[in-house]
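Lab manual, section 2.4: Encoding a predicted structure.

Procedure: take the sequence of the chain (313 residues), apply the prediction step described in section 2.3, and record the output as structure tokens. A sample record is shown.
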Amino acid sequence: MKSFEPLFRPFAAWLRPLALASLVANVALIVTGAAVRLTDSGLGCPTWPKCTDGSYTTTAAMGVHGVIEFGNRMLTFVLVALAIAGFLGALGQPRRRSLVRLSVAVGLGIPMQGVIGGITVLTHLNPWVVGLHFLLSIALITVAYAFWRRIDEGDATLVPLVPAPIRTLGILTTLASLAVVAAGVVVTGSGPHSGDRGAKRNGLDPAAISQVHADLVFLLIGLSVALWLALRALGAPSSAALTLVAVELGQGLIGFVQYFTHLPVILVAAHMLGAGLVWTATLAVLWSLRERPSVTAESPATTTPAQEPVPAA
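Recorded output:
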């Protein structure tokens, strides 16, 4: 890899903003996907990989729905371009194989997302496939975030910054956050915004599923507040946890207002964006509970008894 470093150094100089742009673009994909669903444009391009049987691009006959759906598909190429640039930038970093692996993971997730998106069209917006499409976006955000943060980290073994009970609380908070996102997907599959007026729903009771979702939100907020207070009591960095609580409260407010105002599209779109932001803020909390030092001749990639290793992120 070393022989390629000089060739890719121009990309390496821009690696941090490229990685951040990739993260932002993956969050934006949630918003453009919401626009497709909320405007009933899910079948604006009724087939895949072509937009119509005779054209890869939208046509005048497809109208505005075709433009919206095709525009969402085009964002994939933006993601691909950013992923390739990030990969080249990672190759330009001296001895950073970890960055290369993460950049490859980001890149591989994009065609997977495209394939799942195609299946949603071919299954006429099956709500469970649509939900899988969204969850894959959450997975992509996770990998893109890890890639962005790893640029400023070293490659030594992870070192915890807080005691084990606090790390456990952080893991429980993360699991609750993921459960909230997953429950939100199920709620969406039972609601009125299907992406097309003829698309089927999952058949579950929207009120009952929404109640489960709300209960999980209360659990998540409780765990997040507890984590923030525990970090403050320890004198450990707590700004990431406080940010998470603030984002959760904003997202919860939007969720309750949209439910009691019968799901206006603008609030549903904001709630979809909020889901991506809540998950990103959750990841920031996880990263704040540990550090990964650089590997040096004096500090090999091992841990001392005082530096208990934690699972790699």
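Check your result against the sample. The chain has two domains: 1-152, 158-294+306-313.
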